[in-house]
Write a structure and sequence with these properties.
This protein starts with a helix and ends with a helix. The radius of gyration is 22 Å and the shape is globular. The protein is mainly alpha-helical. It has a single domain, classed as Glycosyltransferase (Alpha/alpha barrel). About 50% of the residues lie in helices and about 5% in strands. β4 and β5 form a beta hairpin. It has 19 helices and 5 strands. α3 runs parallel beside α19 and α12 crosses α13. InterPro entries: 6-hairpin_glycosidase_sf, 6hp_glycosidase-like_sf, Glyco_hydro_9, Glyco_hydro_9_Asp/Glu_AS, Glyco_hydro_9_His_AS. It catalyses: Endohydrolysis of (1->4)-beta-D-glucosidic linkages in cellulose, lichenin and cereal beta-D-glucans. Pfam families: Glyco_hydro_9.
């Protein structure tokens, strides 16, 4: 009798909690916050997307809004007789790394897929940011059996502090093929192309088809020729974007995106057959440019929760386990937070995990709400509202609700990082200083205390340390360097928050 009572009580609790949740449906803080936003999320959204224009490589378009940037790297690829002009510089240097660029593209696309309908005027800018990347990725995958994964010698590039417009370091080109495989980069590139194909499906169906077709081919290459690019290209890609998590996560991630983009049952069969060996049920709760396990779990849970793809029912449990690991105070929690409340994973570019986690929280909350489901963390019922509240707290910390009382997004709020670890931002622009700044000359400025003359609006830096401290030193790349993969997932989270508080 006691066990029946316990079961009935639990069911009743689920019903009550769900009804309360529905009443607060899409508002992270519940009814009392419906009129009062902690921040101008719309302004932050606009700036987070604008940042990508400051990272553009190649021939800039007439509508370029970050006007202190000019054309750069116009002969990229010529060393290998291929056109590799375009794409993004991933962070504060002048190298184009294919691995993080592809992940950036996937996350920008996922942001638009989930929240593009809320973005209004910023939707077009988001699509332009995605297309700047996918146009490049199509070039990088134009030769069957080959993917060009990097332009620029990182060691020599890092020996200089110069504007991208002045670059005179070697624009060496590195590729993967069947003799030098790179499964993780290839599978991530396939994921990016597949995700982007969904973004353009209605607005540009022909381009969407091109992206999807290429994604299929690239994934086939990734799966057939297995091996880590960190092995064959170690001296060029390590320690910058070495693959530490293996390539199994990218294969699952790539298959998940192809399943979503193509609806081809081949990919569902692939996921069913390989899901366990590719690590879907591991307890690894890190999500970023290197590790896609958690992202794959959340994405595949949608197929079960929203589309009722029954063979993927286990991914709801996998996703729930991840959520439980984040919630402070419950027995399954393993996440670390700073005294000020920021999720803390590691010293180097920690903010990337804050933005990616915030995105996953609001996205999973959306899936749960649509399917009328909750999360049970050892008897503690976690609602979508709780997930949104935790995501909002992380984003609010990033935007200024922290012990430093500063925003970690450049150009947002009254106080933000002034000495960002970024060559183009820290050196005088071409307009103000037309003559070339030589390779080593720039280090005088890099090591100075002077603020960056060019405001890299929207750039989110690596962020504070585990004690909420941020020195704002240009030489401190771990804390002061921005990156495209920090901003990309934040776009979706900000779009959701801006809409929730009536700013869009």
């Amino acid at each position: 009798m006691g066990s029946l009572l316990t079961c009935s009580t639990l069911v009743l609790l689920f019903v009550v909690v769900f009804l309360v949740e529905c009443n607060n449906a899409y508002y992270p803080g519940g009814g009392k916050h419906r009129r009062f936003a902690s921040h101008n999320y719309k302004d932050a959204l606009t700036k987070s997307i604008l940042f990508f224009e400051g990272q553009r490589s190649g021939k800039l378009p007439p509508n370029q809004r970050v006007t202190w940037r000019k054309d750069s790297a116009l002969s990229d690829g010529s060393a290998m007789h291929v056109d590799l002009v375009g794409g993004y510089y991933d962070a504060g240097d002048n190298v184009k790394f294919g691995f993080p660029m592809a992940f950036t593209t996937t996350m920008l696309s996922w942001s638009v897929i989930e929240f593009g309908g809320l973005m209004k005027g910023e939707l077009q800018h988001s699509k332009e940011a995605i297309r700047w990347a996918t146009d490049y990725l199509l070039k990088a995958t134009s030769h069957p059996g080959t993917i060009y994964v990097q332009v620029g010698d990182a060691s020599q590039d890092h020996a200089c502090w110069e504007r991208p417009e002045d670059m005179d370091t070697p624009r060496s080109v590195f590729k993967i093929d069947q003799n030098t495989p790179g499964t993780e980069v290839a599978a991530e590139t396939a994921a990016a192309l597949a995700a982007a194909s969904l973004v353009f499906r209605k607005s540009d169906p022909n381009y969407s088809k091109i992206l999807a077709t290429r994604a299929i081919r690239v994934f086939e290459f990734a799966d057939k020729h297995r091996g880590a690019y960190s092995n064959g290209l170690r001296r060029y890609v390590c320690p910058y974007y070495c693959d530490f998590s293996g390539y199994q996560d990218e294969l699952l991630w790539g298959a998940a995106w192809l399943h979503k983009a193509t609806r081809n049952p081949t990919y569902l069969s692939y996921i069913q057959a390989n899901g366990q060996t590719l690590g879907a049920d591991e307890s690894d709760n890190t999500f970023g440019w290197d590790n896609k396990h958690v992202g794959a779990r959340i994405l595949l849970s949608k197929a079960f929760l929203v589309q009722n793809v029954q063979p993927l029912h286990d991914y709801k449990n996998h996703a729930d386990n991840y959520i439980c690991s984040l919630i402070p105070g419950n027995p399954s929690s393993s996440a670390q937070y700073t005294p000020g409340g920021l999720l803390f994973k590691m010293n180097d570019s920690n903010m990337q995990y804050v933005t990616s986690t915030s995105f996953l929280l609001v996205t999973y909350a959306k899936y749960l709400t649509t399917s009328r489901k909750l999360v049970n963390c050892g008897g503690s019922i976690i609602t979508p509202r709780k997930l949104r509240s935790l995501a909002k707290k992380q984003v609010d910390y990033l935007l200024g609700d922290n012990p430093m009382k500063m925003s970690f997004m450049v150009g947002y709020g009254s106080r933000y990082p002034l000495r960002v670890h970024h060559r183009g931002s820290s050196l005088p622009s071409i307009s103000s200083h037309p003559s070339k700044i030589q390779c080593s000359s720039g280090f005088t400025i890099m090591n100075s205390q002077s603020p960056n003359p060019n405001i890299l609006i929207g750039a989110v830096v690596g962020g504070p340390d585990q004690n909420d401290r941020f020195p704002d030193q240009r030489s401190d790349y771990e804390q002061s360097e921005p990156a495209t993969y920090i901003n990309a997932p934040l776009v979706g989270a900000l779009a959701y928050l801006a809409h929730s508080f009536g700013q869009l």
